[in-house]
């Protein structure tokens, strides 16, 4: 494997700035890696080799001419396939949009282009981001680079797998109930969900609008912070966009300390249902934090016991509404009935029947039922009331501590197919990540070690709303302590990474 692709994004940026390597060579090294391994991993749905190399050559020419370019200019990136990209097929992992070519860029993609980051390609995902394993993609599952017979998490398993298998140093994902953090946990990478509104949702194919949030996937906390600074910030095209500045996140990641930090361990995000190895890894990380000067307190957030149920009413209800636009009339797939009259109702039924997969249909039916006249108050309104109580529990917790810590997921990566026939078991994978989405607070997953099965475990850091800098400060400090305890990055211990390139 080329040493170039093992460098962090920050190290690659430094090598570009010093002239040690060209962006064209850096992009080509990642494309060569994709050629070698992605047949086994299936992280990408589409690879943009020519466009990425053209961007790289342009950046090289600008640097040679002495132009002022962004610090990350020339560092390549992968983009989840629910971010619309001008002139490039964007599918959201669905047959419904299999041939759709957007006429514009999502705001975050536009900012990547403006900063000069070559886009390597679009990554695989659960259809319309509905799933926790990337097995619900209409184009086949992604495989975990740690063990190709296991899931890479979801819905953004493609982005996490691309980063974990060294096919990209950075990736963009979206997080509705844990879709950046949970893949990060099971692939040994870093995944961040910013404060809701901290990154523009304009041009992100909507699934559950009050929960969806773009965010970075990377191999280090610093890299995630650097990407966050590039694409975050206010966007007048997004009515929910915050005006908060995003500068200083990378400095927070570099200079953070755990000394004097008040850490809260959430009682409800542990215990029954959490694998022994996951809990042991989390406890070891807490001991490291205590040794580094942090004070650890157990915090109770009783409403978290109901967060999963509330989420799986709010999210399907919003998804049902957002996906109503795919009707065979306006854009995307159109399927006409083979027999009988071609009416609008029959075209819609045929199109949605052929274009949506089983998981999307399941959630749309559930959401439509929750919004129906006879059940709106009993289900949807009750779920929103639980959401308010979750927000109050977070406020109460942050009155006592600076940040909250928990395992990111209750298990390590499970075998492909193990939970496809049990949707409820699949939904439980997001039990620890969902509360942060309901409350809109920032949360990060970073590797905390290996379980007894040799697979990575994720540690979740949750900070108060609009305190993303604190999340990065704690994440950077804890990451350094963990890497010191391991004697090197966790991905150096991944047993399968080189086998798949042979």
Strand content: 5-15%
Looking at this structure, what is the CATH superfamily of the largest domain? Amidase signature (AS) domain
Number of domains: 2
Instruction: Please compute the radius of gyration using only Cα atoms.
Output: 22 Å
Total strands: the figure is: 11
Helix fraction by DSSP (H/I, runs of at least 4): 40-55%
**Number of helical regions:** 17
| Major sheet attributes | 11 strands, mixed
Level-2 CATH architecture of the largest domain: Alpha-Beta Complex
Overall shape: it is globular
The helix/strand order is HHHEHEHEHEHEEHHEHEHHHHEHHEEH
CATH topology of the largest domain: Amidase signature (AS) enzymes
Helix-strand layout with pairing:
Layout: H1 3-6, H2 9-18, H3 23-41, E1 44-47, H4 49-64, E2 77-80, H5 107-115, E3 119-123, H6 157-164, E4 170-174, H7 181-187, E5 190-193, E6 214-218, H8 221-231, H9 249-255, E7 262-266, H10 276-291, E8 295-299, H11 307-322, H12 344-355, H13 358-371, H14 376-398, E9 403-407, H15 423-427, H16 434-439, E10 443-450, E11 456-462, H17 468-486
Parallel strand pairs: 2-3, 2-4, 7-8, 7-9
Antiparallel strand pairs: 1-3, 4-6, 5-6, 5-10, 9-11, 10-11
Helix pairs in contact: 3-4, 8-9, 9-17, 11-13, 11-14
Sum this structure up briefly:
The protein has 17 helices and eleven strands. It is of the alpha/beta class and 502 residues long. β2 (77-80), α5 and β3 form a beta-alpha-beta unit.
Task: Please name the defining characteristics of this protein.
single chain, 502 residues, alpha/beta, Amidase signature (AS) enzymes, 2 domains, 17 helices, 11% strand, globular
């Amino acid at each position: 494997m080329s040493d170039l692709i093992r460098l962090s994004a920050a190290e690659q940026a430094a090598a570009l700035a010093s002239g040690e390597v060209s962006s064209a060579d850096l992009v080509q090294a990642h494309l060569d890696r994709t050629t070698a391994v992605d047949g086994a991993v299936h992280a990408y749905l589409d690879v943009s080799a020519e466009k990425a190399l053209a961007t790289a050559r342009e950046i090289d020419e600008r640097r040679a001419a002495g132009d002022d370019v962004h610090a990350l200019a020339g560092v390549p990136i992968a983009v989840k396939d629910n971010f619309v990209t001008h002139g490039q097929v964007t599918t959201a992992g669905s047959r419904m949009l299999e041939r759709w070519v957007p006429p514009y860029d999502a705001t975050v993609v536009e900012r990547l282009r403006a900063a000069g980051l070559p886009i390597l390609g679009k990554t695989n995902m659960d259809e319309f981001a509905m799933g926790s394993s990337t097995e619900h993609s209409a184009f086949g599952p992604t495989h975990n680079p740690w063990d190709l017979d296991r899931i890479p998490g979801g819905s953004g398993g493609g982005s996490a797998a691309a980063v974990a298998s060294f096919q990209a140093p950075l990736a963009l994902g979206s997080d509705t109930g844990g879709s950046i953090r949970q893949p990060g946990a099971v692939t040994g990478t870093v995944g961040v969900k910013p404060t809701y509104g901290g990154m523009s949702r304009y041009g992100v194919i909507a699934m559950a609008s009050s929960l969806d949030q773009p965010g970075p996937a990377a191999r280090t906390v610093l890299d995630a912070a650097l990407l966050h600074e590039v694409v975050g910030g206010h966007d007048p095209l997004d009515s929910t966009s915050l005006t908060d500045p995003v500068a200083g996140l990378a400095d927070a990641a570099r200079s953070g300390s755990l000394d004097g930090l008040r850490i809260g361990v959430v009682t409800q995000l542990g215990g029954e249902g959490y694998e022994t190895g996951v809990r042991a890894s989390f406890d070891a990380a807490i001991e490291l934090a205590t040794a580094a000067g942090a004070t650890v307190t157990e915090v109770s957030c009783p409403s978290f016991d109901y967060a999963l149920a509330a989420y799986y009413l709010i999210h399907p209800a919003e998804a049902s509404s957002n996906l109503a636009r795919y009707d065979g009339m306006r854009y995307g797939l159109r399927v006409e009935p083979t027999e009988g009259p071609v009416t609008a109702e029959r075209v819609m039924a045929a199109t949605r029947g052929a274009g949506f997969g089983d998981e999307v249909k399941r959630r749309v039916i559930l959401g439509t039922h929750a919004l129906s006249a006879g059940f709106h108050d009993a289900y949807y309104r009750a779920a929103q009331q639980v959401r308010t109580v979750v927000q109050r529990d977070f406020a109460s917790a942050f009155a006592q501590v600076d940040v909250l810590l928990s395992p990111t997921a209750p298990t390590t990566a499970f075998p492909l197919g193990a939970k496809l026939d049990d949707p409820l078991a699949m939904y439980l994978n997001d039990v620890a990540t969902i509360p942060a989405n309901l409350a809109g607070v920032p949360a990060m997953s970073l590797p905390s070690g290996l379980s007894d099965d040799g697979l990575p475990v994720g540690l979740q850091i949750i900070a108060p709303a609009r305190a993303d800098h604190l999340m990065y400060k704690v994440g950077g400090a804890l990451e350094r302590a963990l890497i010191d305890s391991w004697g090197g990055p966790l991905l150096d211990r991944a047993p399968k990474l080189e086998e798949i390139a042979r």
